[in-house]
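Justification of computing resources. Each target in the renewal requires a structure prediction run like the one illustrated here; the chain below, 337 residues long, is used simply to show the kind of job we budget for.
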Amino acid sequence: MGLMNSTETVADEKAVIAAAEQALADIAAVRSEVAKVIFGQERVVENTLLALLSGGHALLVGVPGLAKTKLVTTLGSVLGLDSSRIQFTPDLMPSDILGSEVMDQDDSGRRSFRFVKGPVFAQLLMADEINRASPRTQSALLQSMQEYHITVAGQRYDLPSPFHVLATQNPLEQEGTYPLPEAQLDRFLLQVDVLYPELVAERQILLETTSSAEAKARGVIDAARLQEIQALIRQMPVSDKVVDAILQLVRSARPGHGNATTDKNVAWGPGPRAGQSLMLTARARALYQGRLAPSLDDVYALAEPVLQHRMALTFAARAEGMSVRDVIAGLVRQARG
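Resulting structure tokens:
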């Protein structure tokens, strides 16, 4: 009996390794297809894809004109997801996102209500400039991100599966915007900072995007395959060393947990969801980079995108010109020892 169990385990392990190797090949194909259309910005592409491979949502923060919209539409094509886009404005209503009931009248004059689905019923939803809409409209979207269904007039409607939101935010113009509350920021698996491109990439953008034959991305996988990869990522083994590093890093970012620098500079720190996000995205990063198990490097590389929107500095630290990124970089340095 014992022998059979060990044989089964070996067969199981072989099956998992074979599945992981197939996933590695698919992810590599996705990467190279996206690179045909999005030049440079490797870290942005990587972190956004990690959020999707982990089954989560991402917040892309950057000034206008850095191809955030193009990235989202490209990812939709390459991953075979049905996508839609909402431009958030101050007068956008919750029903503009969720959908609304309309009254129909049949031939005999009988009236009935029919639900017309809004743009949220997509597998990949781009929420452009999410901080421009009123808190009521933001919360309608953020609730659907959390619960994967919506309720209109007491009736529940499930959202498509998989369901991912990639929201964008312009960090500059704060006038007439409604910053996302902390509890809602926590629903984003990662915050991805989109910076200006490097010189070489910008040169390529200039040449490629102003010619008559602009590159288009083709589909590499479909929604069902993406869900298989997401399920596989959740099954990847994580060593105790990596789990301990995640716990230590997340806890060191909370005031009152024995870290003197954090106590001095951080007003409030990340909750348990930050640790869950690091566990998932570290596994996804390992696969993305062609490895079958996450390492400490994966954890430290993801510290900033996972933690920065889940903590806030004290007034004194901000007055000194410190940023959340500086604090996280310091914590990672301490953790690396």
